[in-house]
Amino acid sequence: MGKKKVFVISHSHWDREWYMAYEQHHMRLVKLMDDLLDLFNKEPRFNSFHLDGQTIILDDYLKVRPERRSEVEKRVQEGKLRIGPFYILQDDFLISPEANVRDMLIGNQESKKWGNRVNLGYFPDTFGNMGQTPQMLKLADLKYAAFGRGVKPTGLNNQVFDNEKYTSQYSEMWWQGPDNSKVLSVLFANWYSNGNEIPIDKAEAKKFWDEKLADAEKYASTDNLLMMNGVDHQPVQKNVIQALDVAQELYPDYEFIHSNFDDYLQAVSKSIPKDLGKINGELTSQETDGWYTLANTSSSRVYLKQENTKVERELENIAEPLSTMAYNGTTDYPHDQLRYAWKMLLQNNPHDSICGCSVDDVHREMMTRFAKAKEVGKFVARDAIATLANQINTSKFPQDSKPFILVNTNGHEKTEMKTVEIEWERALFADGKPEDQYEAMKQAQNDLSEFKVIDQTGREVPFDFVSSDVRFGYDLPKDKFRIPYMALYITIQLNLTAMPAFSWKVLALSKTNQIRKPEVKQYYDADERILENNWLRVSIKDNGSLNILDKKTNREYDNQLIFEDTGDIGNEYIYRQSVDQKTVLSSDIQAKIKVLQNNFLGAKIQIQQTMMLPESADARLEYERQAVIDITQRKAKRSDKLVPLTITTVITLSKNADQLKFKTSFNNQMKDHRMRVLFRTNLKSNYNSADSIFETVKRSNHVSDSWKNPTNPQHQQNFVNICDDQGGVTIGNLGLNEYEILPDNNTIALTLLCSVGEMGDWGYFGTPDAQCLGKFTFEYSIAFHDQSIMSQTETYQQAKTNQVSIQSIQTSIHTGKRKPESAFMTLKSDSFAVTSLKQAENSSGNILRGYNLTQNESSVDSNILSKAKTVNFIEEDYPTKSLNMLEPAEIKTYKFSF
Fold it and tell me: Cross-referenced Pfam families, in alphabetical order (predicted)?
């Protein structure tokens, strides 16, 4: 029997920003990298340093030390600096499926630019791990995974727990995803610091290694033991080679090797035992006491999540599809601009950043990055839709009409009550003084007559005139100086029904001599307080809650839309209700109801409720924060002083929609509390389904025997669903990533806002900005389905398309090669959820990516299939069994050309 091998890997877990602002961590990174480059020159036996699975570290360093670029490149190519495979270490659950892919794609591109990447999906400190990781790693051409959280055994802060139920008997295990993909995985059972600061003194070294070797051997499935020589922001141990010489002298029966992940994983894979365990799906520590799953980071600083979602939609679902449609395989596609925007967005996606669990300075800087990435996306999208508009033939419209183009950039059909603004007339500054031109446009506004909206055949399209406005505007031509003007704008509203995926249509606003007969159909009965169309009947009660009849199934859901406010004496990581359990419900007060819109297009009803809430926690909480008392031991209550919070919710029911949309706003001036909105389902079910990363994940409504936390928060992307054998309810959202299933009638609780005053974790870091004082708006929806899979997945697709409005742009009357009503491609599938339409990285062809929303075999019907092949995430050939068939939970990426 040979010696056991101890693989010591030097590393530093590098959070770019966390308990200090980015630049504070950045300057420490410069020192670390300087030390490493110097150490490589001095100590030839120092094998390598693992740069935490990221490539952005090199960019950050070279911003300050550009003169050392060639030295860095040399050390990467030699394998001294181990980089990648990711661009940043992301949070799995709080960024979109596509953002996870771009992290892999850009990380792969950057790694190739420097040298080689580490062949390891590296997730040392993500707060739980997504279930599709095995399939995603295979699609990124990665063989292994390593992670620190989610299953037992676990060793946070080097603790190894005894007498517990273990998910895996070893620290190595097979990890199988919902599609049955499998990857060999390593859990940092004694955390990623189990070999940190190795002593060089023999007596200290003996004590150190006796403990560390025993802990590692307790769970290792092979004779290859992993020692992680580093921890968060740890400087390199410069004498680690000498420390290993001491260890070798003390323990001659072991072989101590200063090594790297590639060599360690190769050794492990050659000697794995037959009884190696298997874990399945997402890893979220469900067999622990539930306090430290850190799932409440999904609602911490909710404004970050909302902004992140909006920027993702701008890039993924607007700018990229429009650019693909407009440039279609040409070199005009804005690769560099989009990559720049993606990198900016991804810099906000590390777990301590997007999770909202850092100090205030960190999150203030994040908002600037969001804004920059969004502006790039808006610029690219505007340029692309203008290019597309110029390609569409509008010559059939009357010369005095104003054509406008509507584009559905979603990968599924969309129904929307759409508002469009049209410039009716303009007066150039070049032709007169600004004030004279303003008055001219005001006069034109006064002279407005009747209008009609027509399609390319002249057929009239029902619409509603909303308003007119005169204001300043300007053009920025690409070949000449700016053009300022005053303009008269007209705003109209119309219903767009079942507009196909990636399609467009041209309509025009035109004058008419006929007086429009007002449509008399209305969808709200003010006397009865009933909202109703062909699919839903909604009764608004005195307290603002709703009783909803789903006509498809003839089932009534009562007591919907109730706001719940509780005290929160926890931190940015973990919610802890105040010990007095003081809860305030909107159902206990009267509501004010106002009609905002009620016509043939649909209805918008405003509900206003004023809740009297405690202004904060009591004084004890500040002491408990300062004394760093663990949240599970805190005794703080809510203040006795009450202040008003007015909640305004607009409910929208359009003529052709089988869902209700909500927009809730309030000005939060309270501290230390949590606000949720409750939807009681009354459905008998033990499970819920939630939108996750390339997966509709099925989760239990009940906790394990070891669970102690009185709450059970969960992550979501776009929706959560509960159903029984007759049908169910889907709650959609925009950037509201936390929900909980309450045992009382299987109520879906959607978290709107959490207000806390400290970061938490290893000390006291005050975070007044995390109290989230100020104005907030939240968007969400409710839809119902029958027992069929098709009906259920349709509510899922709706929740996704709710996040992306139909795009519009005004255009001129001109000829063009594209028809006035057409589509870039045809795509029909109930279960295929599209995550990306973009141009291939090498510009030869387009990329369409999506996944099967269900655990059933499904199919894709599209005109691209005859011209397509399948590729992986890094856009290399990846053969499939069938182009049009989808295996359960399968992720599929098509590459095609027209």
Answer: Alpha-mann_mid, Glyco_hydro38C2, Glyco_hydro_38, Glyco_hydro_38C, Glyco_hydro_38N
Pair 549, 510 in one domain? no
Whether the Cβ atoms of residue 840 and residue 846 lie closer than 8 Å to each other = yes
772 token code pair: 């989230």
For residue 705, give every residue at least 6 positions away whose Cβ sits within 8 Å of its Cβ, in sequence order, or none: none
Encode 3-27: b = buried (16+ Cβ within 10 Å), e = exposed. Answer: ebbbbbbbbbbbbbbbbbbbeebbe
Domain stop point among 352, 386, 420:
386
Asked if 533 contacts 661 with a C-beta cutoff of 8 angstroms, the reply is no
* Active site annotation includes 352: no
Classify strands 546-550 and 555-567 as parallel, antiparallel or unpaired.
antiparallel
The whole-angstrom separation of Cα 548 and Cα 534 is 13
Q: What is the pLDDT of residues 820-876, one digit of tens each?
A: 999 999 999 999 999 999 999 987 899 999 999 999 999 999 999 999 999 999 999
Phi and psi at 391, nearest 5°, equal -90, -10
DSSP string, 312-338: HIIIIIIIHHHHHHHHTTSTTS-HHHH
Domain region containing 701: 526-801
Predicted pLDDT at 156 = 47
Ordered DSSP codes for 420-477: EEEEEEEEEGGGS-HHHHHHHHHHHHHT---EEEE-TT--B---EEEEEEEEEEEE--
Q: What integer pLDDT is reported at residue 158 of this predicted model?
A: 39
Catalytic entry in 125, 232, 618, 658: 125
Question: Looking up tokens 């966390």, which residue turns up?
Answer: 18
- Say yes or no: 642 and 515 in one domain: no
CATH of the domain at 237: 3.20.110.10
pLDDT interval class at 159 (50, 70, 90): very low
Alpha helices in 821-887 (DSSP H): none
- Residue 555 inside a domain? The answer is yes
DSSP 8-state symbol, 388: H
Average pLDDT, the chain: 96
Whether residues 540 and 513 share a domain: the answer is no
Contacts (Cβ under 8 Å, ≥6 apart) of 310: 374, 734, 735
- Antiparallel, parallel or unpaired: β 821-823 and 503-511: antiparallel
Whether residue 651 sits in one domain with residue 637? yes
pLDDT of amino acid 166: 56
DSSP state letters, 553-579: TTEEEEEEEEEEEEEB-S-SS---B-T
Judged by average pLDDT, the poorest of 281-290, 392-401, 867-876 is: 281-290
In 3D, which of 281, 313, 298, 362 has the Cα closest to residue 769?
Answer: 362
Examine the domain organization and report whether 592 and 727 are in the same domain.
yes
pLDDT (tens digit, 9 = 90+) per residue, 738-777? 999 999 899 999 999 999 999 999 999 999 999 999 999 9
Residue type, 511: K
**Average pLDDT in the 258-285 region?**
95
Q: What is the per-residue pLDDT for 329?
A: 78
Task: Assess whether pLDDT exceeds 80 at residue 400.
Answer: yes
- Give a yes or no: residue 107 inside a domain: no
The dihedrals phi and psi of 39, each to the nearest 5 degrees, come to -65, -40
For residues 516 and 534, membership in a common domain is answered with: no
- pLDDT in the model for residue 844: 86
Residue 266 and residue 300 share a domain:
no
For 176, phi and psi rounded to 5 degrees? -115, 130
**pLDDT average, residue stretch 127-144:** 97
- Indicate if 797 and 830 belong to the same structural domain: no
User: What's the pTM value of the predicted model, to 2 decimals?
Assistant: 0.97
Assess if residue 112 is contained within a domain: no
Structure-token pair, residue 689: 């389904």
Q: Which sign, positive or negative, has the C-alpha torsion 378, 384, 387, 391?
A: negative
The predicted pLDDT at position 169 comes to: 83
Residue carrying the six token digits 């990124």: 140
Q: Write a three-state SS string for 734-779.
A: CCCCEEEEECHHHEEEEEEEEECCECCCCCCCECHHHHCCEEEEEE
Region 354-376: mean pLDDT is 98
